[in-house]
Amino acid sequence: MEVRGLVITCPRKVEEWTLSVPLAVSSEVGVRIELCGLCTPEQRVYRGAKPTYPYWGGHELSGTIVSLPDDVPDGLRVGDRVAVLLMRRCGQCRACRLGLDNHCAYLNPKARGGVPQGPGGLANFVGVPAYQVFSVPSFLAPERAALVEPVACVARGINRARAKAGDTVAVIGGGTMGLLHSILLTTKGCDVYLFDDDVATHGPVMSTGAHATGSVHSLSDPKLVEKLTDGWGFDCIFCTRFGVRGIQGAIAAASRGARIVLYQSIPTSDLLSVGANFLHYREIELIGTIAQSADDVRNAIRTIVEHAARFDVLQVNLWPSSNAQEAFEQALDPRVNRVMLDFR
């Protein structure tokens, strides 16, 4: 079938293309897309930092079901509002069998022929396997449903860190991902401290119930860390920004038995040097996290529904898909947490 897709054709240029995509009517769920967020991958390609053209991005989707396969999955109905997670989860590979289905897409990539590279969510319609479709309550606004994917990614890192009520937690970076970490961690009952060089990020984070403490450099101030943590150090630290410099600050401020989560990706040329014995004797864990599992998605939906008002702190701007060029330009503005394209 033919869909309207937004394709990045070169730096700072987006075009609407008519694209022919296969729809397996007997086995796929048809979803009319309402909103699609512009995340870091789209922004990098658009500004020319990752020149992979043409690129058909989009993976933060909300929409409504318009058709169901012959074997109708439990809980899905035509007209349901859904979040769509485009990651491949075959259910058969070792990663999927171990509950690491967030790794399946990286181990078993599946190319789509005849269309530009990319996830392909920036479109008015997608046809996908049922496991990529997650129902949300009908009262949940489309812009909240489109946040399910990034919230699920954040939730995964928090779960891997085993963060719990009463933990003293540092979040490095007050951008969109740092803000989402603050929302989810304060919801869990953690005592959260933000570290970011940009003081403009401090106000939104404080409105989540976290403390805006200072710059990343201040993590290396032992007197400040002792004061904030009663002399113990931070139980969990989430690195969402500032690359190696942020990770070094996290290690300096970590308590014994601390869990340090490397949420952000950093250039492969940026190398981290850390004394192995420091980690060994203090039992500090460095934890990677990538994407989200299906369970993380379900947990994210539950959190967004139960704590919807907490997400009002996010500045989310909607643009009609006909104004995609302007929308992409605004997505590069760090003051805006998420720009979403509206295909309704």
Automatic annotation (TrEMBL):
Record key words, sorted: Oxidoreductase, Plasmid
GO molecular function, one term: L-iditol 2-dehydrogenase (NAD+) activity
Domain Alcohol dehydrogenase-like N-terminal: residue ranges: 27-137
EC code: 1.1.1.14
Record bears the keyword Oxidoreductase: yes
Pfam families: ADH_N (PF08240)
Annotated signal sequence range: none
SUPFAM superfamilies linked: GroES-like (SSF50129), NAD(P)-binding Rossmann-fold domains (SSF51735)
Coiled coil: none
Superkingdom to which the source organism belongs: Bacteria
InterPro entries in the cross-refs: ADH-like_N, GroES-like_sf, NAD(P)-bd_dom_sf, Zn_alcohol_dh
Entry keyword annotation includes Transcription regulation: no
Protein name (database record): L-iditol 2-dehydrogenase protein
